[in-house]
Specification:
The chain is an alpha+beta fold. It folds into three domains: 3-82, no CATH class; 87-123; 125-200, Immunoglobulins (Immunoglobulin-like). Helix content is 48%, strand content 29%. It has five helices and eleven strands, in the order ααββααβββββββββα. It has helices spanning 3-31, 39-57, 75-83, 89-123, 200-207; strands spanning 60-64, 70-74, 125-132, 138-141, 144-149, 152-158, 160-167, 171-173, 179-183, 188-193, 195-197. The chain has a four-stranded antiparallel β-sheet with strand order 5-4-7-9, with no helix packed on it. It has a three-stranded mixed β-sheet with strand order 6-3-10. β1 (60-64) and β2 form a beta hairpin. The longest helix has 35 residues, at 89-123. The radius of gyration is 54 Å and the shape is rod-shaped. The model is unreliable at 204-208 (pLDDT under 50).
Length: 208
C-alpha cells in the first residue's frame, strides 16, 4: 500500500467516526427531557405568542368580552361589539315574570267570566222534582214523554209555567191528570202524583 492510498483510507475512517459521533450526539439531544413548565408559565408563554402573532398583523387589538375572556379583534369588529345591546339577565327574568303574571291574571279573569256565565244561566233555570207512589211511571213534560221515570228530578228547565204528568200502563192518576208548575230561577219545585190500578170497568170504558 503506497502513502496516498493509506491517507485516503485514514480519511474515510475518520469521516465514518465523525458521522458516528454526530449521530450519537443527536440521539443524546433527542433523549434529553424538555424542561417542565408549571401551568402559569405555560399560559404566559401561550399568551405571549398569541400577542406576538396578532401584533405582527398590525390591525388587531385585545378585547375583553362579556365572559371576561380576551379576544383579538379588528377595530371594526370592536365597534360592532360595542353597538350590541347587552342583555341584562335580571331584566330578562323580570320581563318573564311580568309575562307570567299577565297570563295568570288573564286566565283567572277568563275563569271568573265562565263561572259567572254558568251561574247566570243557572239563575235563569230551575228544576221540578216529580214524586209518585208507584215507581217506574214515565214522566210527561208539556205533553211529551221524557226519558225519566218516577221518582226523579227534571233539571235545567227554563223559568216559567210547565205542565207535568205521569203515565204507567194499567194505572190511572188520582185527581188532576196534569199539574201546572211554575219554575223559578235557581229553585226546585215539587209535584206529587198518586196512581191506582185501573179496574175492569175503567178498562172497558177506555176501550169504548
Amino acid at each position: 500500500m503506497d502513502h496516498s492510498e493509506e491517507q485516503r483510507l485514514r480519511e474515510i475512517i475518520r469521516k465514518e467516526l465523525e458521522a458516528r459521533e454526530d449521530l450519537r450526539d443527536k440521539e443524546r439531544v433527542a433523549s434529553t427531557p424538555a424542561p417542565r413548565l408549571n401551568e402559569a408559565d405555560r399560559q404566559r408563554i401561550i399568551d405571549d405568542e398569541i400577542s406576538r402573532f396578532y401584533a405582527a398583523r398590525g390591525n388587531y387589538k385585545p378585547f375583553e368580552n362579556e365572559d371576561g375572556e380576551v379576544e383579538w379583534l379588528t377595530e371594526q369588529e370592536i365597534l360592532d361589539r360595542n353597538r350590541q345591546i347587552p342583555v341584562d339577565v335580571e331584566e330578562l327574568e323580570e320581563g318573564q315574570r311580568h309575562v307570567r303574571n299577565r297570563f295568570l291574571i288573564i286566565a283567572v279573569a277568563a275563569f271568573l267570566a265562565v263561572a259567572l256565565m254558568v251561574y247566570a244561566l243557572q239563575q235563569r233555570q230551575g228544576s221540578i222534582q216529580v214524586l209518585c207512589n208507584v215507581d217506574g211511571a214515565v214522566i210527561v213534560l208539556n205533553g211529551h214523554p221524557t226519558e225519566f221515570r218516577t221518582d226523579n228530578v227534571l233539571r235545567d228547565l227554563p223559568v216559567g209555567m210547565h205542565v207535568v204528568s205521569v203515565a204507567k200502563l194499567g194505572y190511572g192518576i188520582v185527581g188532576d191528570p196534569a199539574r201546572s208548575v211554575e219554575v223559578k230561577a235557581g229553585a226546585q219545585e215539587v209535584v206529587a202524583f198518586q196512581l191506582e190500578p185501573k179496574t175492569g170497568r175503567d178498562s172497558g170504558q177506555a176501550k169504548n
